[in-house]
Amino acid sequence: MKKLQVTLLISLLCLPGLVSSAEKEDPLAAWKPKFDPSGAEFTYILSNISHPVIEGVAVGYKIRDKVWEKTNGRLYVDYRPLAQLGGEKDVISKLKLGAVHGMLSSSVAAANVADRLGVVNLPYVVDTFDKLDTFRSDPELWKPFSEAAMSSGIMVADVTGYGHYGWATTTPVKSIADAKGVNFRIAEAPVNTDSYKAWGLKFTVMPWPDVPQALQTGVINGLDHTAIVCNITKKFTIAKSFTQLNYAQGLFVHLVSKRWLDKLPEDLQATFLEVVAEESAATREATRKQHDEQVAKAKEAGVEFFELPESEVAELKKMAEPVLEKWGEKIGSEYLATVRQKLGS
């Protein structure tokens, strides 16, 4: 009887169904190409650190499929989200060396590539969806931005987003005084550091992968991020309050190696850039809808949303003026003045 039990146990463990269910599922299985890319003449290796459930990340796959279609399979966009090629600082280095051809860089990291790219993260400058669209469509604003990193051999092809920045916290923040009692996690970005210092708030610079444990253990009790990201990545299960600060748009800046682009035949260059522009514009519209959807879902799940009084928002803007002045010297005072004037910021 004992031998029979052992035999049955071994048989059960060897069943294919049981083995496959124990294997970790591929989180990107739904986004695999429906074509064989092995015959492509040219390949574009594109990186991103986030998950394509975010519209601003999924654009990489939309670009992949549209480029394949419009070039008749001559150019394959080998898209690698979820930090498959490393963290953003590592990928930026690889991009400069040519080991990676493109990157959907978070706007907070993009300022490390060229100071001028930090303009989109300055407090209350490009802070709404409408202002972002104006910024992208106005050549006087966009051209200097798109060419900001050319000295490093990198061009900015376009931008997509992931919503408005605010504060996800474990206790409600309804005022600046409330915020002073919070230790905020902020990104590894110089613009953010300067802003939080100017506001007199406590903060911890921390890589995104370290956030879940830090939030669970109380090392931090607040996040500087967007409602889209906080809801999708389940940060609202712990930080159940969100202050809609809306001081900046979270963006993915599409950085492209100019060396790689110049090696493409002219017709493929034109098609590639055309597709990137079309899909990025469509994704910016989709991000507006995703923002509304994720806020609604978060509210249904019990997350409380707050807004600071107008007088306190005005105070934050006033305290941030020295930051804008400092960064104006880095990115060009005249350029920043033009951006603020045209956007009404």
Features:
345 residues; alpha/beta; D-Maltodextrin-Binding Protein, domain 2; 10-stranded mixed β-sheet; 48% helix; 18% strand; disordered N terminus
Radius of gyration: 22 Å
Characterize the main sheet: 10 strands, mixed
Helix content: 40-55%
Sketch the topology as an H/E string, one letter per element.
HHEHEHEHHHEHEHEHEHEEHHEHH
Shape: globular
DSSP strand content: 15-25%
CATH architecture: 3-Layer(aba) Sandwich
CATH class: Alpha Beta
Structural class: alpha/beta
* Mean pLDDT over the full residue set: 92
Number of strands: 10
Quote the distance from N terminus to C terminus. Answer: 81 Å
How many domains is the backbone divided into? 1
Low-confidence stretches: 1-23
What topology emerges from the helices and strands here?
Blueprint: H1 2-13, H2 16-22, E1 42-47, H3 55-70, E2 75-80, H4 88-97, E3 102-106, H5 107-110, H6 129-137, H7 139-146, E4 154-169, H8 176-179, E5 183-186, H9 190-199, E6 202-205, H10 211-217, E7 222-226, H11 227-232, E8 241-243, E9 249-257, H12 258-263, H13 266-300, E10 304-306, H14 310-331, H15 333-343
Parallel strand pairs: 1-2, 1-3, 5-6, 5-7, 8-10
Antiparallel strand pairs: 3-9, 4-7, 4-8, 4-9
